[in-house]
User: Fold these one by one.
Assistant:
Number 1:
Amino acid sequence: MTVFENSESFSREEIDKRKKAIFDSMGKRTQSAILRKGFDSWDPFEEPKHPVEIRKDKTGNTVSGIVEKFFNDFPEKKGDSAYRKIVEEMSLGVITGDDKIKARYVFSMWYKKVLEESGIEEDWT
């Protein structure tokens, strides 16, 4: 059992008493879940889980960093929530290597080339 700070100063009986007090203060649904897993194996004093490692792209940017840099380059788009949602989705996809995002990127680059070869200039920014 991982026990709270300074546990050396508490007896086993005191620890069990505190554990029971925590359990008794919980709702019935939570108590039932603990009992299903086993009260003795439940540790209310365990250390909190560490957050998932923050994912970064190959340049060291996080999703929020990529989004922020994008909107610094295109400030007129910053207020559009639908646009922001797509930019966030694309940024996460770039970091995770999502095939949907790769396909969108490849298609966009291909279509830009098709337009250029046809002499059509489109400014989608």
Note: DSSP finds five helices and no strands in the chain.
Number 2:
Amino acid sequence: MKYKEASDLSKDELKEKLSTLRRQLMELELKRKTGVEKPHMFKETKRDIARVMTALSVKQVEGKV
């Protein structure tokens, strides 16, 4: 997910996406013990979480100004 895609989503959609990404990261952490077939997914998921959180933060600031 690119930042542009995240910034186009509404606040509710961003919150839902954030929840989904965090759940995905948790599942990856559990799979890490048994061996993950796609280890690059950790980095990618963490970056997606950061992008969504940044977009959500910007939307909250815009709403207050």
Note: The longest helix spans residues 40-64.
Number 3:
Amino acid sequence: MASRTHVFYVGVTNDIVRRVREHKQGTFEGFTSRYNIDRLVWYEVWPYVRTAIAREKQIKPWRREKKIRLIESLNPTWQDLSEDWGKPIQPLRRDPQIPPLGLKSSVGMTVWNGAETEKLKDGS
């Protein structure tokens, strides 16, 4: 997360949509609300909470310049990656000049949350 003036916040969450909304609404007092940190400019997805926390601990002590390089490697304009969340999705229009693929089975995407598997492995 970052402010318009590029003040950073690095954190871990199990619900990025909720957490970004909380930052945007200033739900909690403290560093992020004081510095108006309400823009999602970079994120990573990890299947296990321990891995996510380890990555957070790795990034937090980095110098500012290194964090900027990380953000700009994927988001050079510092666009708020969450700005279109919750808006209606416009259907894609197929170019009539390009024939359809003719797939014989349906194509989809499955989202898997590894945190539940980790919880079971831990026995907790």
Note: The chain has a mean pLDDT of 78.
